Amino acid sequence: MNVFRYLPTDNLRLSIGLLLILGLVAFWVLGGIFIDLDDANPISGAPSQAPSMKYWLGTDAQGRQMLPLMVAGVPITLRIGLIAGGLGVIAGTTLGFTAGYFRGWIDTVIRSASDVVLTIPALAVLVVVASTLSSGGLSANSMALIVALLSWMWPTRTIRAQVLSMRERSFVDMARLSGMGNYEIIVRELLPNLFPYLVASFVAAVAAAILAAIGLEALGLGPQNDPTLGMTIYWSMFYGAVLSGWWWWYAPPIVVLVWIFVALYMTSSGLDSWANPKLRRT
Amino acid sequence: MTTRQFGARLLVFLIVIWAAASLIFILPHLAPGRNPVRERLIQQAAGGGGRALGIEATIAAFERDFGLDKPLWRQYLVFMGNTAKLDFGTSLALYPTKVTTLIWQALPWTLGLVGVSTLLAFGLGSLAGALLAWPGVPRFVQFLFPPLMVMSAVPYFLLGIGLLFIFAFKWSWFPIGGGSPLSSYPEWTIEYIWQITYHAVLPSASIVLSGIGFWALGMRGMMVSIANEDYITLAEMRGLKPRRIFMQYGLRNALLPQVTALGLALGFIVSGIILVEFIFRYPGIGSLLFRAISAFDYFLIYGVVFILIVGIALSTLLLDLVYPLLDPRIRHGKD
């Protein structure tokens, strides 16, 4: 199969996505080397300063410097996304394979459950869980676990659909005829073939988890002591930054978040079209 | 849809409602070693300068009133009974206002905002996606696609803050927040309706701008495969007008999976709208939820979340009931 034929349209998306992710990692690594992260703490600078030579991205009303704040916030956001998205994909893969491969009543149960939970507004349920379990604020890790509770449905749904069609292929019949057990077929035949799919749904799950985490943080339910991107937005809204014209307070987290979401979106849709030839005709 | 299918669908609906209510009942009991509602009451009593002796009596009275001294299973039954009557108790922060009263005040705002912007995004997005995939459509339409796609990756509320900054703060074209002018009160006058629309432009624009790309993407995929179908070729050979082929042979068929996707996306949309309302201080359910969170007003939080889940479950139920009308194959029981 000539993969290179599709380079101009498909890999463009994937390469833009990967480049953006690389840029993000570079921002974090270089920022960590060249910028003193203590400046992300309150009163490290004068309050509410516009960007200048001294404070490159300005400061917020408590005198946190925005640039160090962003450098400190990116890894927390990514960590929450990776933990929650990873758990979601592991659960989704297990459920998707169980449902798609064994079918029957267990498929009915898993499919209906994921379809039903999918329609429930995740943010609302997360708000209930987060506000009930923590009046004193959550840690970034426990927030990741809470977000993971509702990040298994899409992976389950998409992986199940793929398994369902792939188990009918002749190489699976071949494996079965040559005496492989169900478990062996899943691990040795199906999993490797679905690998690009798993990666694509992992990236999508990370994006969804970050979205949910940012939502919780923006509503004031995030980690109180960590300088997360969502909390920055929460405080800027809390102090009426829009009305006061302090655009440098909310613009940096928005730019970084849009960067993250576009990067993950491009990567995931690039991977998708790589994994699924049907999407390639444009 | 057969009676049996309808029964099964209704059962799923009831299970969702039951699960949501149970979750709300169970969660406070799972909180490590304490009852958040009780803690909140102690906090409030202490803040109000009540004597320490009085607090315990208050809590005892509260627990008696709410039946918290009864065994757990009876509490559960009482809670379920109240929830079935849509009685979520009184707000802790705005005592003695009923939670239900606050929700009914906020609900019309959210319904209007969600309804209008979702329909706009769905309609415009589907149309854009269909045009993008259809052969013979001007080339410049193709250039719409990348920006639409990027836009769809951006969460509503981030886009909302951007719009707020440009159009409300910088250029002052639109109000900076709220649902209507502070000095006005609801009445059926042209002026008031105009004001509501005017205030709703930016919040709904942030939902529509980000939503269009999402719906366009799905529609484009469907239209690409439909454009290659034999029945389209046949329609062309019969000499039907291109416009008619596009609308009735292409669009109509491609729209069906979109409607299914709409049902699945509702939860996502509502999650997004909660945040948009918070950003724009729009007087709907989302802002109410935010106020409840800020004040640790647990009964209000639980009430709002329950209503949100019921609303979405109802909408998907309706969508599933309407679907057979759109798709004759299901209507006649041929799957």
Would you mind describing this structure in some detail?
Helices cover 72% and strands 0% of the residues of chain A. Chain A has helices at residues 7-34, 66-102, 104-119, 122-133, 140-148, 153-166, 170-177, 182-193, 195-218, 229-238, 241-244, 247-275. Chain B is mainly α and 335 residues long. In chain B, helix 9 (230-237) packs across helix 10. The chains are: A mainly alpha (282), B mainly alpha (335). At the A-B interface, helix 3, helix 4, helix 9 and helix 12 of A face helix 1, helix 2, helix 6, helix 7 and helix 10 of B.
Walk me through the topology.
The complex is a heterodimer of chains A (282) and B (335).
Chain A: H1 7-34, H2 66-102, H3 104-119, H4 122-133, H5 140-148, H6 153-166, H7 170-177, H8 182-193, H9 195-218, H10 229-238, H11 241-244, H12 247-275
Helix pairs in contact in A: 1-2, 1-12, 2-3, 2-5, 2-6, 2-9, 2-12, 3-6, 6-9, 7-8, 9-10, 9-12, 10-12
Chain B: H1 3-30, H2 36-47, H3 52-65, H4 72-84, H5 99-133, H6 145-152, H7 156-170, H8 190-227, H9 230-237, H10 242-280, H11 285-294, H12 298-326, H13 328-331
Highlighted features:
heterodimer; A: 282 residues; mainly alpha; 12 helices; 72% helix; disordered N terminus; B: mainly alpha
